[in-house]
Amino acid sequence: MINAGIIGSTGYAGAELVRLLLRHPEVNIKWYGSRSYIDQKYASVYGNMFKLVEDICSDDNINALADEVDVIFTATPQGYLASVLTEDILNKVKVVDLSADYRIKDVSIYEKWYGIEHKSPQFIGEAVYGLCEVNREDIKKARLIANPGCYTTCSILSFYPLVKEGIIDANSIIVDAKSGTSGAGRGAKVQNLYCEVNENIKAYGVLTHRHTPEIEEQLSYAAGEDINIIFTPHLVPMNRGILVTGYANLKKDVSYEDCLKAYEKYYKDEKFIRILDKDVCPETKWVEGSNYFDVNFKIDERTKRVVVMGALDNVVKGAAGQAVQNMNLIFGFEESMGLDLVPMFP
Amino acid sequence: MINAGIIGSTGYAGAELVRLLLRHPEVNIKWYGSRSYIDQKYASVYGNMFKLVEDICSDDNINALADEVDVIFTATPQGYLASVLTEDILNKVKVVDLSADYRIKDVSIYEKWYGIEHKSPQFIGEAVYGLCEVNREDIKKARLIANPGCYTTCSILSFYPLVKEGIIDANSIIVDAKSGTSGAGRGAKVQNLYCEVNENIKAYGVLTHRHTPEIEEQLSYAAGEDINIIFTPHLVPMNRGILVTGYANLKKDVSYEDCLKAYEKYYKDEKFIRILDKDVCPETKWVEGSNYFDVNFKIDERTKRVVVMGALDNVVKGAAGQAVQNMNLIFGFEESMGLDLVPMFP
Amino acid sequence: MINAGIIGSTGYAGAELVRLLLRHPEVNIKWYGSRSYIDQKYASVYGNMFKLVEDICSDDNINALADEVDVIFTATPQGYLASVLTEDILNKVKVVDLSADYRIKDVSIYEKWYGIEHKSPQFIGEAVYGLCEVNREDIKKARLIANPGCYTTCSILSFYPLVKEGIIDANSIIVDAKSGTSGAGRGAKVQNLYCEVNENIKAYGVLTHRHTPEIEEQLSYAAGEDINIIFTPHLVPMNRGILVTGYANLKKDVSYEDCLKAYEKYYKDEKFIRILDKDVCPETKWVEGSNYFDVNFKIDERTKRVVVMGALDNVVKGAAGQAVQNMNLIFGFEESMGLDLVPMFP
Amino acid sequence: MINAGIIGSTGYAGAELVRLLLRHPEVNIKWYGSRSYIDQKYASVYGNMFKLVEDICSDDNINALADEVDVIFTATPQGYLASVLTEDILNKVKVVDLSADYRIKDVSIYEKWYGIEHKSPQFIGEAVYGLCEVNREDIKKARLIANPGCYTTCSILSFYPLVKEGIIDANSIIVDAKSGTSGAGRGAKVQNLYCEVNENIKAYGVLTHRHTPEIEEQLSYAAGEDINIIFTPHLVPMNRGILVTGYANLKKDVSYEDCLKAYEKYYKDEKFIRILDKDVCPETKWVEGSNYFDVNFKIDERTKRVVVMGALDNVVKGAAGQAVQNMNLIFGFEESMGLDLVPMFP
């Protein structure tokens, strides 16, 4: 049994961590951090937690927290963890960071896309990019996990086998991603009001979204060369779910079976990845509330391209679920512990 | 052709006024007031108005405005108009107030339910409650219209004929109202975020909602005695629409035909009120985007009660549409001018 | 470890049984019955179950099934179970019926409200009405459970303590209920299409809904006399959730504390019932995906009435969750086994 | 004043024709055709039309209809019009066909993608593809209009200027389209039920959707060569609206201004096309209920591609609105008559 603290527990990703960890047989949540709701009952912030969580929200004292728990999850705005992390903390606890602070190895790229100075670049090298299906062995040995972004997880996992196997021209990749609104967070902004999002769909952050360099970096590793892609996020009137529809040029004549073989090579034994049956298109509803990533693809003989489709729940596999999966790996628990969630339908 | 100014043009009710007045053959909008968006293009606040409105948002100088226009619509927070209205303004322009400032005749009730001091009670007596189907003749002669609230319009029109004809015990009235989220306004509040409202329904303001005394006052006039009712509003995951389901005890044995006769007595010739066919339940979707109020009822022999159902679009008949209807009456235009909107389905 | 069969496993309630039983530590699903999808893979009907359920849908042979399993769940249209149930079946297996066939003790009332002849009235007497919090001890000894309806569970639990304690006039009860659309089932009907339900709210089945006599019967037991109520269901544009807003006349002067005491008397130790803090209104989102029933109330001094609010997830506590709770009681498992679901938000 | 008949008036596109034509100053609807609802009141099928339409639905006798009206709109399943159209009919009335029967010039392509035999290929040559902004002059002289599909209108108008001006490689075009659910029609299908569509997004008809050859044919004319594209439609949980996000390789170094010049060359004077300001992304909500098509684009220096975004209301500019626009052109009415609809927000 380990103790966990959550800094940023009242955002949507933080709240999902609470939902998952409450039912994790080896974890006890000791600290509900929340700058916005200090001294308020957690259950008054999230009514669903009434009678399930009796705790009060605490301020963000990461140093104090490091003495009390075994693992800290930071579901905080960009720059927070980078500004407070120390060697001392890392010597005491494992840290799973759900922000972007340590995801990008080249600090100048981070500073350019995020527009803030990185306050502790010395830990970037050590941080392990927590995409479990790709970096499992490194994660097990890590002190600091850079938990991947929601769009990023969905985009990388959709293309990874095809890039790794050299089937597609990685520079031709176009990721057209559609996200539920929980991805926009719980901040009070006019653009995220019910009446603004409902009955509406739009692209946003076109060619400038911060998950772009993160996808590029990870797929560059797989490709063995630096690549550039197009990534276009869209806001969809639903709470949860990301669907990636991706496009790329085939480098060679490949059949359905060839591509399938690539996906199976990397994902066949993955508990949380489901390669759908031929011609079945992923639907975000099929993974809602679960840690699954569903994927499929179709080959277009006419244009010599592949269409790839991937779906996940942005607050589970795209955030809190993956964070728990990383924690399980680090502490030697069964990787799926606390994550055997059956998707909810409808 | 008259000139109109809108103070509070960037709230949802104000924006609906713009939508309606843009197509009104006798009105020219001269002033787009908005404290929050001063000097910004109106069309940058409401993208739907691109190429339709070229104007810039202005600050709220009601005195300057009174010199430029024939009618002022105030779609502003409670207390604003009461704090700036003067005899001089009313001598120059007609004012249609979409706030609650002049709706309640007893200033102590206003101050109790709204929790603010009324700054110009001297105009309360003169203000005409702008429920066109009930107060038509007074409206025609008014300088100052207290445009009814959305819940209020729906609740009063649902029960008015039954109360007026003494068919029900007005003190037994229970109004269970369900509203789309545009009724909550465009303010950036966590509770109105997409993810908080979507896939959710709740009551709010139970026994304390400010529309209660407004409904009570108007139905008291109809009843000829002071009455108390229960009013329970609910927030529904949809943009527009209010549905009232109302209950009351029958004072005497009445048939379906008796009740129907009561509704027809008051509503038969009303262009914007539709008494639905027997057993057809109103649906908010059937009035969306239009100035219609749909109504129907059922008599319960078992419990000697009547169930009344009424539906309207809260931003049209419940706000901007009714305001335009009032303006038409005041200026001698055809009452339905600019309001011949066909409900949109789906 | 027991074996379970589900007849009607491809409706929404059946599918939720699958979701819950898949994670129940003492149950193995042996039979996925579905008349509409015979011989098709269950996971092709519900894509969320891909890789989780490998079974094929079977026809409804309840006699064969009775030899194979320990418990049969029937999530079937009204009249099905009544037409096939035999003493022989009940001697072999426990039956939890999610239809209305055995809920109403007076067969003439059943036949009047449902419009069909009851084919096996001989089992009505023995059937136990499976509202666990009320009939727990009888359930433990039952062979046949009449699992309560979704509206019914929410309505009865909302009012039960107040009726039982004689605080309200049970004949004055008005239940204004709002349901998500999964309650309408998975049948392909125009009125349940996305575009018909979305952005819309309506009452339906006013004064004629079949859950009315079921609520009346159960509350009559609590009241100790035959009562009549008004029950008005509404269709809300959301997937899951029922909210009941109820009204009743107080029989005596009672305080908030008096009422609270009544609720606590019956619900204090109930794991799945949460009496919310004073003035907090239940929201369906707070119970989504869980077996909780949330309740609260407010007393209106002005009209001497109480407003009661109750919320549950119609496919969990209102159907499949309660069915599993009943099964747990019958088989002597811990009552909450497999039901420790944390509500999902957002 | 002309008379119009609508065959298929109870589908969503047919119903929108009714909404628009009811307010068209030069049109009188004489015939509400509907195979499914013969002899029923139109307003009982669409409750929003209560008191607005008193007519009864009639069977589809196009020959009888041709004697009574000046224009026939067919909002019917594929193959219907092709199976009944005759020279005699075309000599008597103008026909605006909202189905795909005459959209594709090469009958073998039609038969391949639609899987049905074309029963009257002799009219294909004469039919004018009713994309008003592209084929205006031909439309004015036409007897038979092939009204474009919703996806098609949005896709073609998004790319037309860039293809026509040779700025992009038309064979590299990828159209990722997102549609509201009204595009799926009013047929009672499980996959279009509220609970299946809500809180869900998916691609469908990947590489096989029937609008593909229609887009290809029209863009081939613009390109001056036969082209192949990728078109991926998605189903979005909203009623109305299509958003196209399109991608293509730039053939040459072009600036934002160069591209803008291309769009302005073709669309500057178009009343129903709005080229948005730099960096503003179209939102479907901004065109809801109106005949507008909004468009914008961004150039990606990193990958030498352009991202194009277009939005329209699928039942207005994507169906009924464009049909009325075509009718206006044919009969010499002002092109925007009856179509000056202000988009509704929220």
Task: Write a concise synopsis of the structure shown.
Four copies of one chain form a homotetramer. Chain A is α/β, with parallel strands linked by helices and 346 residues long.
Task: Describe the overall structure.
The first copy, chain A, is an alpha/beta fold. Chain A is 32% helix and 19% strand. The first copy, chain A, contains twelve helices and 13 strands. Chain A has helices at residues 12-22, 42-45, 62-68, 80-84, 87-92, 107-114, 132-140, 150-164, 194-197, 211-223, 256-267, 316-331; strands spanning 2-7, 27-32, 71-74, 94-97, 128-129, 144-146, 174-179, 202-203, 230-235, 242-249, 273-275, 293-300, 305-312. In chain A, strands 8-9-7-10-13-12-11 form a seven-stranded mixed beta sheet. In chain A, strand 12 and strand 13 form a beta hairpin. Chain A is globular. Chains in contact: A-B, A-C, A-D, B-C, B-D, C-D. Chain A binds chain D through residues 171, 174, 176, 178, 180, 195-196, 198-204, 206-207, 228-230, 232, 234, 236-241, 243, 245, 247, 281-285, 288, 298, 300, 302-303, 305, 307, 309, 311, 346, and chain D through 171, 174, 176, 178, 180, 195-196, 198-204, 206-207, 228-230, 232, 234, 236-241, 243, 245, 247, 281-285, 288, 298, 300, 302-303, 305, 307, 309, 311, 346.
Topology of this protein?
The structure is a homotetramer of 346-residue chains.
Chain A (H helix, E strand, L loop, with lengths): L1 E6 L4 H11 L4 E6 L9 H4 L16 H7 L2 E4 L5 H5 L2 H6 L1 E4 L9 H8 L13 E2 L2 H9 L3 E3 L3 H15 L9 E6 L14 H4 L4 E2 L7 H13 L6 E6 L6 E8 L6 H12 L5 E3 L17 E8 L4 E8 L3 H16 L15
Parallel strand pairs in A: 1-2, 1-3, 3-4, 4-6, 5-6, 7-9, 11-12
Antiparallel strand pairs in A: 7-10, 8-9, 10-13, 12-13
Helix pairs in contact in A: 1-12, 7-12, 8-10
